[in-house]
Design goal:
Blueprint lengths: L7 E2 L11 E5 L11 H17 L24 E2 L5 E3 L6 E3 L2 E4 L3 E8 L17 E10 L4 E7 L17 H18 L7 E6 H10 L3 E5 L3 E5 L4 E5 L2 E5 L1 H9 L6 H19 L9 H8 L3 E3 L3 H12 L6 E5 L2 E3 L10 E3 L1 H12 L21 E5 L6 H10 L6 E3 L11 E4 L4 H11 L3 E3 L10 E5 L2 H7 L1
Parallel strand pairs: 7-10, 9-16, 19-20, 19-23, 21-22
Antiparallel strand pairs: 1-3, 2-6, 4-5, 7-8, 8-9, 10-15, 11-14, 12-13, 17-18, 21-23
Helix pairs in contact: 1-5, 1-7, 3-4, 3-6, 4-5
């Protein structure tokens, strides 16, 4: 019999929550093998975390079984009494002794790092480049929910002492310590408790290992960047992309949306990978995925904390997984020598308050979510082969005084269920639209039209509503 005691986390100097993880329950019986329901759940949770935590979809799962790098800041020390586990023969014989959960809200910075030429996998120099993707995640057990703020790499930051005033320069100039400092000060002094850095090479290998992902490519993508050795050539329509194709889709910048369109496509890939990981046959490939990923990850998350995050992920409802894009605009050609993403500070404050429980930078900031819902900009897109569905929704909302609706080009997504995309984080408005339509799934992500507050992707279910 193994008797596991309490896991303690000491208070750190960086506003670390009193308890990041806690023991959920003591195991009094002989620990089961991987075939038990919980262990199955553990690996599904690993798969879920793989999609939720990693910005271009590289998984924190690998950190469960890989040697961790030396921490940048020793934010906490974990005391563990009792035997943790017994791994005597690979994944199939892995035994679970104790179970953890997230005790307080935790903010994690995830950085997807540009690959450097002539640097081999496993080298410490692998993580010294700019961050190609930046995510700020909040695990909140009080709801429970997982929030993910996508921060465009070209976001301009003022007075941070960077060689280039772009937020993605911070990692190149000072590693994760400087990156966390810059992002914390830029976002109203939000505490950053842990970091996780990954490289794009791991993403390609991971997608290939999983047999590719199903992606709808909305347009012909043809783009070349010799400085990054990047060649993109994708045809439009639904298709299964391998690792190289998925990376091309996620990194495409050859349209007017630039880096922001790239962030949107990264979120699309995130969803596609999450769908792929629903296949139970994929679980058998996790050991190989872990082996591949260990050379592409650098983190100061401890194994206990990873276990806690995985366990937490098991219980998150899909409606409580929120993907949010930092709102703003492109800089004007005459403003700066370089191109930047200029954040909208008012909407940023509202997002930080609503989703991250972080006080605004100004006590007098306007409540964006208090704007009358009938005044919001709503984009309508017919995703089916049935003519006139978007027009029908337009007329239906017009009868209810929604006068700020506009049309997007029809697509071939062929959705069965209508999606209401919460483009700028106004979840309450989306719920009102859902009620007025009587159908629709709410999707808190930034995959809609950039100019909209909400984007409605009309599915086949609206034609059934019309018939009734």
């Amino acid at each position: 019999m193994v008797n596991c005691k309490e896991v303690k986390v000491e208070q750190g100097e960086e506003k670390l929550p009193d308890t990041v993880i806690m023991l959920k329950s003591e195991q009094q019986n002989k620990p089961p093998k991987v075939k038990s329901p919980f262990i199955k759940g553990l690996f599904w949770g690993s798969a879920f975390s793989l999609t939720a935590i990693i910005s271009a979809l590289l998984g924190a799962t690998a950190a469960l079984y890989t040697p961790l790098s030396k921490v940048v800041n020793d934010l906490s020390k974990i005391e563990f009494n009792g035997v943790r586990s017994d791994n005597s023969g690979g994944i199939g014989d892995y035994k679970w002794v104790s179970r953890y959960s997230v005790g307080r809200p935790v903010n994690i910075l995830v950085l997807g790092i540009d690959e450097l030429a002539n640097v081999s996998a496993g080298s410490p120099d692998l993580f010294k480049s700019r961050s190609d993707t930046i995510l700020l995640l909040r695990f909140d057990p009080q709801e429970p929910s997982l929030k993910m703020l996508s921060i465009p790499r070209d976001t301009r930051v003022e007075n941070q002492g960077l060689t280039i005033p772009k937020i993605n320069q911070a990692n190149a100039d000072g590693g994760p310590t400087l990156a966390a400092k810059v992002i914390s000060s830029t976002f109203n002094d939000i505490p950053i408790h842990r970091y996780l850095r990954v490289t794009t090479g791991g993403f390609r290998e991971l997608v290939d290992l999983l047999g590719g992902i199903e992606i709808y490519v909305p347009q012909r993508m043809l783009y070349q960047d010799l400085t990054q050795n990047l060649n993109i050539d994708l045809q439009p329509g639904w298709q299964t992309l391998d690792g190289a194709g998925a990376e091309q889709f996620a990194r495409f910048r050859g349209d007017q949306k630039g880096d922001i369109g790239r962030v949107q496509r990264q979120q699309m890939v995130l969803k596609a990978l999450k769908e792929r990981l629903k296949n139970p046959l994929i679980l058998a490939k996790l050991p190989e995925a872990i082996r591949i990923m260990q050379q592409y990850i650098d983190t100061n998350l401890t194994p206990e904390e990873i276990f806690a995050l995985v366990s937490f992920s098991l219980n998150i409802d899909k409606d409580n997984l929120n993907l949010i894009l930092l709102p703003g605009r492109f800089s004007y050609p005459q403003e700066y020598e370089l191109s930047y993403w200029i954040m909208d500070n008012n909407v940023k404050d509202n997002i930080l308050k609503t989703y991250f429980n972080q006080n605004p930078s100004s006590v007098n900031f306007p409540e964006i979510n208090n704007t009358p819902v009938t005044d919001l900009r709503i984009a309508l897109e017919n995703t089916t082969k049935i003519n006139g569905l978007a027009t029908s929704v337009f007329n239906h909302l017009g009868k209810q005084n929604f006068t700020n609706c506009y049309f997007l080009n029809d697509s071939e997504l062929n959705l069965e269920k209508t999606q209401i995309i919460v483009q700028k984080g106004n979840l309450e408005a989306a719920k009102i639209i859902q009620q007025r339509l009587g159908i629709g799934e709410i999707d808190v992500s930034s995959t809609g039209d950039l100019d909209s507050d909400l984007t409605i992707k009309v599915g086949q279910d609206w034609s059934e509503t019309m018939d009734n």
